[in-house]
Every structure is written in structure tokens, then in C-alpha cells.
Amino acid sequence: MDDDFSFCKVKYNLDFYKILLVENVFCIAKNMVKVLKDNGYFVVHGSDGKGALNLYTNYLPDIVIIPDRLPDMTGLDLVGRLRTLSGMDRMFILYITPQNDYGHLKELKTIGVNSYILKPFEAPDLLLTLRELVVSGGNLSGGES
Amino acid sequence: MEDLFNYIKSQYRRIEPYSRKDTSVPKFWEYYFKHKPMMSAFNDRYDFLKIPFFGRKIELRDNFKHRLNELFLNYIVPFRKYLKQIIESGWRWNYLSIKEYNVIVLFADFCGKFENVETVRNINAGAFFKMEEAFIKLAKNPEYQTLVMEVFYKIIEKTKDFNEAVRAKIDALGLFFKEGGLHPDMPYMLQTDNIYYYKRYFSLIDVFDMEFMEGVVSDFYDCPRDVFEEIVYNIESLLKQIKRYEVDKENITWLKNMSLVKNGEMPAKIINFYNGKGSFWAKDSDDFFKLFINLAKLLIDELDFILYKDFDVLDTDGKVIRVKIFDKSSFEVLFQKLNNEFYLAKARYFSVLSTKIGLVEFITNPKVTDDFSEVQKFVYEKVMSMLSLLSEISLKINKLLDTDGLAVKIADRNKYIVKLPADLKGKSLHQAVFYYLELFLQICGYFREPKIMQEIERLGTITKQLDDTRAELNRISDSNRYIESKLVETGRIVNG
Questions:
Q1: What is chain A's alpha carbon radius of gyration, rounded to the nearest angstrom?
Q2: Nearest to residue B107, comparing CAs of B87, B121, B128, B127?
Q3: Chain-chain contact of A60 with B426 (C-beta, under 8 angstroms)
Q4: B431–A13: do the CB atoms touch at under 8 Å?
Q5: Of B101, B55, B334, which Cα lies nearest the Cα of B224?
Q6: pLDDT, tens only, A52-73
Q7: B482: confidence class by pLDDT, cuts 50, 70, 90
Q8: In this predicted model, what pLDDT tens digit does every residue of B85-103 receive, in sequence order?
Q9: Inter-chain contact B316–A44, Cβ cutoff 8 Å?
Q10: Rounded to an integer, what distance in angstroms lies between the CA atom of residue B293 and that of residue B187?
């Protein structure tokens, strides 16, 4: 075998995840974007539901982080709209909610949320939940902050 | 190296036995009524001692020295020539265990001490007792004697020295260590010299009464410093070899996973690409040549796009940027050749009506080419040539992927997301390039491109070489791997 004809395992970061962060509170969004970018994620930010749907079609993110309330629709509405789009089966949804009641969390699962995080939360909680989401392939029932 | 040598020696130290025999001078009556009668009775057998009627001035007769000399010449000298060779090189022989090597070191120590015993003039007590101690270490443990003999059987069988006379000499060496094996035997000689030196009677049990623990370690070679240096050098070189084989194995395994589809599975990446461009894989599969020519056309169009046109990419702020991913100069020659081969194949195949060869038959029947018509042979040759060019292109992409060799530098490849072409939409630039590599390699693997297949076939050989080298390292390494740790610690070996 010719020595030149040998392939090398590609090592550069293929473990690459795009996140669409939907958050209308600017200072919260700014902090979260920084934390996520610092941890190697590609992050795009949308501040309302319509913008998020637009960004989704352009970027086809791997993970969408959705809060409970948005200026133009609820988080649940946005989840519902996203789940009707093509290619959504390969995307994970992480839902940010302040409500810790069983009925609400069950509803999240029913409409296609892969994991949730309870408000208030710290950056490590968010990163851990994202990591678990990626490792589990979206089969998490929920995340606790 | 000096430090390491001393460290290893201290870690795997041979525990030295010590003699517990009572060497005190007996009292007058004890000597005359207990020891002297027993000494005389003992001496009756070979008369090595001159025991005076009065007084205690016992002397050794010359026949003792002669017998000692005879034992040395007959039972030790025949093996001396092998000892140096075993100690210097025995660690290299995979048929010799560390324990066997160390038993031979013990035997060599005994032989050296035996040689130092002066047998012409008066026997030097210091030299004799050193030899005695070395003898007892071997004689008290039957396993050691067996091992010494087994080593000589093995070594002599490996050399051209082996014959019945030599075998008889090794058998005799077994007798040399045993009480009653020879007449007189070594234990009797030791008893005699102890009686002579300490002027009191010693039974065999008294002489052999030694605090005895395992004298031979199995953890590492009890070798001299120069041999130790050679072993360390060898361990270092084996570790480097293992590292190379591991990298090779990892790379080939990766290539195999990228190129081959599992038995019974469809080549999903190829099919998705083919169908995604508006063709129908399932429908075209009834004619392998037509399918491949179509596939080649789609690939050429794709290469034409990625080499000569811009990609639309998005940054995180939604801004669209136009970029070239590939530097066309690296691929242009291969691309042109691919184009030429494609047109030759297409022109020939579609100009003549030819019997169809189904894709399944082409993939599953290794002898399918035997019955090819002239046209099919020609087109097949072109197919193979196109696959070879595609493997060259794949190799180039692979070499560029982890470097700054592509038009977009490595640090920027995950900063942008492809917008157009649409079938790569949502991928980072790095993922887009990787997509092409995966696709091209799967095509090469699925259609059995010879160079790729040959590379994958190396996996068996590399795995065996890796296993053999690891086994060799395990064989010669110290049991706690101190040497390897030290080599890593001092930076002579890069770990991980």
C-alpha cells in the first residue's frame, strides 16, 4: 500500500450543535447567548415567536430553547407551530417554565417538548440540561434546576 | 537510567536467605563423646577428612579438592557457555519467562561462586560458604532445579547443540542438586567442609537450615545494568510501535465505518443523494452501468458547484455571506479526469445496446466481470477509473479537513451555516465538507474501489500487529509497569 494513501480520522469538532434561543428579555438573552457561545454552541437569538419561526427555517437548529411567555404568542403555541414544520423530528426543544405542577409538565411532554428547565436557573443547570438532552438523543422527560 | 535501574532493583528485590546453623565450638566432652564419633562415622564413607585421635585439628584430604573439582568440571562447565548468552539475550526469547530467566541468573551466580572456590591449594572458607549459600538457594527449591533444566532443554533444542549426550548432561545436572544423586554428591561435600571448618558434626539438615523465602522474583528480569538498559530501550520502542498501530487502527476503522455499509443495509447516503437530485435509485438499480453513469453525472455537477461556485452562508446575526469552501486548484486536475472518464463511459455505454447487469448482481457476485461483453468491460474500466479518482478526491478532502488547507480556515468553519445549496442547508461549513467526504467514501466503499478496499483490509494485519506488540510488551515489562510510567513521566513516551 502506498504510504500516501492513508486516511485519518477527522478530529475537528463534529460535535457541533446549533441552538435557537427564543427570549424577549434582552439582558437575559444576552447572558444566555454568551454562556452558550462560550461553551461551543452556535447560537442564534430570536425575541418573539414569528422571528423564531423565521430563524428556524434559515438555520435548522438542533435545539430550540423556548420560554413560557413571548410577546406575540405563548411558548406552548410556538412549540406547536414548530412541531408542524418539516425536519422537526431531528430537533430538540428545551422549555423554560416557572410552573412545577404535574399537569403542566405532562402537557409539555405531550406537545413535543424534549426537556424542561424550571425558573429560576443558573448557567450550569442550563448547560447540564443541554448536555443531557444531546447525549440522550432527546429522550429526556424533564430537567430540574 | 541509573536511578531507574536502582529503583527497579529495589522494588523487585530478591530476598536473601540466611543460615541458621549452630557454628559454636563444642565443649571438650561434647566433642569427644558426641561430635567426634558422628564425624568419624560420616567420614568412613569417602574419607575426605583426616580426624586426629587426639586434638581437634581436622584436615581436608586432597581427594576432597579433587572431587570438588571433578563436580565443577562435569556438572557446571558444560553449561557455562550458555549462561552469558541467556543473561544477555534471554529476555528477548519469548519462550523464556521472567522467572526462568531469573532462575538462570541464580544458577549463574552459583556457577560463578563455585568457580571462585580454590581447589588447588587450601580451600578459601569465605568463597566456599558463598558458593554453599548459592547452592542451597537452588537445592532447597525443587522448582528452581526443574526450571534450570527446562531452560537448558529449551535452549539447547533451539541451537544445533542438541544430541543425546547433551540431554544426558542436563539430566545429570538434576542429580547434581539432589542428595544421593551422585557419589559423593554436593550436599555431602558441603557437610564435609562444614565439619572441617567448624570442627563439629553437621547433619545435612543442619547445613541446609536456612531462613528461606522465595528467592526468585517473577516481576522483572534480575539482570545486569547493561541488559536493563537494552530492555528499557526495547520497552520504549514497543510503546512507540503500539502508539503507531493504535493510530493506524483508529484511522482504518474510521475509514471502514465511513465507507462500508453493514450486510443487508442500503447505502443510505448515496441513495439520499441520488434520489435528492431527482433520480430514482430503486428504479435505476436494474441496470448497474446506467445507475453508475447517472450517479457520476450527479457527482460531477455537485463537484462543479462546490469547486467553482459560491455558497450562501449565514452568520449568527442572519447576515448572508458568499463564500468558496474549496480551493479549486487542489482538485481541478482530478475533476477534469473524472469528467473525461465519465464522457467516455457514457458515450460508449449508450451507443450500443448492452445486456443489463443489475446492481444487486454487481454488488453480490464477485465474478460478475467474467462474463462482461467488450462494451461492458470498457465501461467497467471507466467506472473503476472514476472510483479511483473519487477516492483521490476523498483523500485530498480528508487531508484538508483538519487543516487550514480549505478556502475557509478551520477556525471559521463552524461560525457559518449554509443557506444555499439547499440540500446542505442548516449545516456548518465543516459539516458540509464532511458530508461530501462521507458521500464520496460511501460510493468508493459500496462499489469496492480497490485502493480503499485494500486499505480497509489492512485492519486485520494492524490488529494482529497491535495485539502481538502488546503481548510482547506485557511479556518484558515489569509487573507494576514502573518502567513505562517512568518513560511517560520523563517525556520519552507521549501517553494518551
A1: 17
A2: B87
A3: yes
A4: no
A5: B101
A6: 999 999 999 999 999 999 999 9
A7: very high
A8: 999 999 999 999 999 999 9
A9: yes
A10: 90
Q: What phi and psi values does residue A106 have, to the nearest 5 degrees?
A: -65, -40
Contact B413 A12 (CB under 8 A): yes
Residue B49 sits at φ, ψ, to 5 deg, of: -110, 145
DSSP structure class, residue B367: T
Beta bridge partners of B321: B313
- Cβ-in-10-Å burial (0-12, 13-18, 19+) of B213 comes to exposed
Contact A11 B454 (CB under 8 A): no
CA-based nearest distance A86→chain B, Å: 13
DSSP secondary structure, B58-109, as one string:
-EE-HHHHHHHHHHIIIIIHHHHHHHHHHHHHGGG-TTS-HHHHHHHHHHHH
Residue B353 identity (one-letter amino acid): L
Is A86 strand, coil or helix? coil
B346 CA: distance to closest CA in chain A (Å): 29
Interface membership of B395 toward A (CB under 8 Å)? yes
Q: Quote the cell numbers at residue B363.
A: 454488488
pLDDT band at A144 (very low <50, low <70, confident <90, very high): very low
ipTM: 0.83
DSSP string, A110-122: HHT--EEEESS--
Tell whether A53 lies on the interface with B, counting CB pairs under 8 A: no
Is the pLDDT reported for residue B391 higher than 50? yes
Alpha-carbon span B458 to B465, nearest angstrom: 10
pLDDT tens, A22-62? 999 999 999 999 999 999 899 999 999 999 999 999 999 99
Strand residues in chain A grouped as ranges (E): 18-22, 42-46, 63-67, 92-97, 115-118
- Paired with A20 in beta bridges are A44, A64
* Residue A102 touches chain B, beta carbons under 8 Å: no
Residue pairs between chains A and B whose CB atoms are closer than 8 Å: 75
Q: Is A66 on the interface with B (CB under 8 A)?
A: no
What is the pTM assigned to this prediction? 0.82
Tell me whether residues B395 and A5 touch, CB distance under 8 A: yes
Residue A42 amino acid letter:
F
Q: What backbone torsions phi and psi does residue B406 show, to the nearest 5 degrees? A: -80, 165
Q: CA-to-CA distance for B187 and B42, rounded, in angstroms?
A: 13
Closest C-alpha among B333, B332, B298, B334 to residue B421: B298
**Summary mean pLDDT of chain B:** 91
pLDDT of residue B119: 66
**B438-to-A9, B317, B391, B421 alpha-carbon distances in Å:** 12, 30, 11, 17
B55 conformational bin, left if phi > 0, alpha if psi -120 to 50, beta if neither = left
